Give the backbone structure.
Amino acid sequence: EVQLVESGGGLVQPGGSLRLSCVASGFTFGDYCMSWVRQAPGRGPEWVAHIKKDGNERWYVDSVKGRYTISRDNAKNSLYLEMKSLGAEDTAVFYCARDSGDSYYKYYYMDVWGKGTTVTVSS
Amino acid sequence: ETVMTQSPDTLSVSPGERATLSCRASQSVRNNVAWYQQKPGQAPRLLIYDASTRATGIPARFSGSGSETEFSLTISTLQSEDFAFYYCHQYNDWPPRTFGQGTKVEIK
């Protein structure tokens, strides 16, 4: 069964840091680009970051550039999201998602999602 | 950034009826649009990609159409399990990839 399992969420104070992890199973992790998507309470999903199969290319939404870092370890079938300088606007459920689609033109949609991990930024 | 605007915000439908959801892109996104279903407390689930291709395991009552800036998702005969939020998503022009604000399909 294709599966993504996130962990690492929790309560963090404003200005703090957190590292999220996602472990993949049921497919060859190194064959896929991956993304992180977040969803604030009562809002729609928001794509946050993307990483290429080999980790050599990364893209971010403007609001997290310089604060979030996406990385991966293909030997461990794992995806990570390092977050720093967190604020209330970062409070959300964070989902790990597999990217599928046209790798030549980079038309990627997210076809497999984890259940998510909740990040709450509050004092 | 490509803005995706969905309509209506809420759609009230009786079981067994047909539902049509709309999504408009602020610029052409070719056919690079996906539709997701989300139920409370669950992750989004891929229904449609490339505007009209059903994802694996998605029932035939779900269909997508459109290109460039106008897209729609149709649920031909609503089942009880179809009452949920639906989001359109463009992956043509990124970063960032963007989602619509969502349409809630509720029981009439």
